[in-house]
Amino acid sequence: MRRVDLKNIIAAGLFIIIATVSAAQPSGQLKKQAEFPKLFLLSPLQSVNQPGVPNNETAALYVYVFLSPECPLCIHYVPVLKELQQRYAGKIIIRGIVPGQAYTPDTLKQFCSEYQINFPLYIDSAKTLTNYLSARVTPEAMVFTMNQKRIYRGAIDDWMNELGQARIKAGKFYLQDAIISGCNRQPVAIRETVAKGCLINDF
């Protein structure tokens, strides 16, 4: 897989379609609680890589991030997610979810190898988890406590401020702030933001 030059793409206006989508599902307890544990443990999904991150059931938080290997924003955020995985190891369970059937396991394994991804990546080929959690774009992050309460959903940070327009650097770190608050059992100040990225399609 050829590495994407994100700066050139942004300079050209992000030639892919970047969509802004507000998550419609309200914060708090999820619907269909009886179905949630099976999905929460990712049993319906296909594992792509085994980076050696323990499935620590005593961790304070689950972090799901919906990703696409060809989305420039996702590629931009891979180092951010890797750093969060390393910094909060043992406190969070971070999982990358690739929705749909557009990418084969071999393609995603190459993606993991090229970007040295240090967190587990899964294919949600039937989009079971994607639809259940009402994910709309990649990248989109969701943070849950171990008692199944969602404490954050939306953007990773504010680096992408408008359609196709990026800041020089991020100034607000929504996902990291939610992780810190959740690990410390404190209320999350910003529980929901608008995720900007590549629309999750029907494939």
Helical element count? 6
Q: pLDDT average, as an integer?
A: 79
Report the sheet with the most strands, covering strand number, pairing sense and barrel closure.
7 strands, mixed
The total strand number stands at 12
Strand content: 15-25%
Distance linking N and C termini: 20 Å
**By helix and strand content, what is the structural category?**
alpha+beta
- Cα gyration radius (Å): 16 Å
Low-confidence stretches: 6-37
Strand order of the largest sheet: 2-9-8-4-5-6-3
Specify the overall morphology.
Answer: globular
What is the string of helix and strand elements?
HEEHEEHEHEHEEEEEHE
Helix percentage range: 25-40%
Report on this structure.
The protein is of the alpha+beta class. It contains six helices and twelve strands. The relative contact order is 0.23.
